[in-house]
């Protein structure tokens, strides 16, 4: 016969069991990635996968191949699977209200990483973690303003390779850059087109820019390093010297950009840090535990001109 003390102990253990199980159960995170369009994106995906493993988070990862409809499908499947938290890097800024309302109705919190969204109701996502893209555009332009101040020329014609149409980094990097170059009327954007954040498209669009011979191109502003690297090939194939005949400014700070700077083919890169994995996992745990978190968390980033490339290259982590 079980005595009273033993019965009470058993009862207490049975009552505590669900709470203990909940504590021990690994958190499941459904992540929808934009695609694999750039060196930056590859580093970002690797960081998320490694950090999930390290943090004991069960990660469900889907690559949307740069298509919003694939991201919507992935988010809906995470809702159906009842994951604990959803995180995604939205390919474009708008068109998310419906699916985010579905996640909210299912009681699943959503974290935005890398790219932001435009929604009527900001409570549809809990928090954003990533870069300040407007500031990145401003940093790129400030570097050019300083250089232009030292260059005694009448005009500096700029061509711009934009990122994916409608994406937060393309919109914000354009805005930040334009805001700052206004200070010097010598700086004019003469052509601007999307290179979709890829090397192949960056090369193709740069070739088209170079073929239009009505105006001399002095500067290339590329919204990411991959497009700049593609454009460098186009410039060389046109018989010009990238980094010398055409000044090249880009964003990300990937290893490929540092190699191009070391070779004298790229003039400056503005850092955009893809290593968001560890912070995302910590944030996911806090969000699931219903702790208060900041609505917008941005990371600190630098500017690397070609002069420091050789010294910095061995320290680069992506
Ligand atoms: O959203 C971040 C941007 O997306 C990176 O600058 C670019 O390389 C990537 O494709």
TrEMBL record:
Signal peptide (UniProt feature, chain positions): 1-24
Taxonomic superkingdom: Bacteria
Pfam families found in the cross-reference section: Peripla_BP_4 (PF13407)
Annotated keywords: Signal
Main location: other
Limits of the Periplasmic binding protein domain: 30-291
Localization annotation: Cell envelope
Family: Belongs to the bacterial solute-binding protein 2 family.
Name of the protein in its database record: ABC transporter substrate-binding protein
Organism whose genome encodes this protein: Pelomonas baiyunensis
Organism lineage: Bacteria, Pseudomonadati, Pseudomonadota, Betaproteobacteria, Burkholderiales
């Amino acid at each position: 016969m079980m005595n009273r003390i033993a019965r009470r102990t058993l009862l207490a253990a049975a009552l505590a069991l669900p709470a203990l199980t909940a504590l021990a159960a690994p958190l499941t995170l459904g992540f929808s990635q934009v695609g694999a369009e750039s060196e930056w994106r590859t580093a970002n995906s690797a960081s998320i996968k490694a950090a999930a493993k390290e943090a004991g988070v069960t990660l469900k990862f889907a690559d949307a191949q740069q298509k919003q409809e694939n991201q919507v499908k992935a988010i809906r499947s995470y809702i159906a699977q009842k994951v604990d938290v959803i995180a995604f890097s939205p390919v474009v800024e708008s068109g998310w209200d419906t699916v985010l309302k579905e996640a909210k109705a299912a009681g699943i919190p959503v974290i935005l990483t890398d790219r932001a969204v435009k929604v009527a109701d900001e409570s549809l996502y809990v928090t954003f973690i990533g870069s300040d893209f407007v500031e990145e555009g401003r940093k790129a332009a400030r570097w050019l303003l300083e250089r232009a101040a030292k260059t005694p020329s009448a005009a500096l014609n700029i061509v711009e390779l934009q990122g994916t149409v409608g994406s937060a980094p393309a919109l914000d990097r354009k805005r930040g850059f334009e805001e700052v170059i206004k200070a010097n009327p010598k700086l004019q954007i003469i052509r601007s087109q999307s290179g979709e954040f890829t090397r192949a498209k960056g090369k193709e669009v740069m070739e088209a820019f170079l073929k239009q011979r009505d105006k001399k191109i002095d500067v290339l502003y590329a919204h990411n390093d991959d497009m700049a690297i593609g454009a460098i090939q186009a410039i060389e194939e046109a018989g010009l010297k990238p980094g010398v005949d055409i000044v090249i400014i880009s964003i990300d700070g990937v290893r490929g950009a540092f190699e191009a700077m070391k070779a004298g083919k790229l003039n400056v890169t503005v850092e955009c840090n893809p290593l968001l994995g560890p912070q995302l996992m910590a944030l996911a745990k806090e969000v699931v535990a219903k702790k208060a978190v900041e609505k917008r968390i941005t990371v600190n980033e630098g500017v690397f001109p070609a002069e420091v490339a050789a010294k910095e290259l061995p320290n680069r982590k992506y």
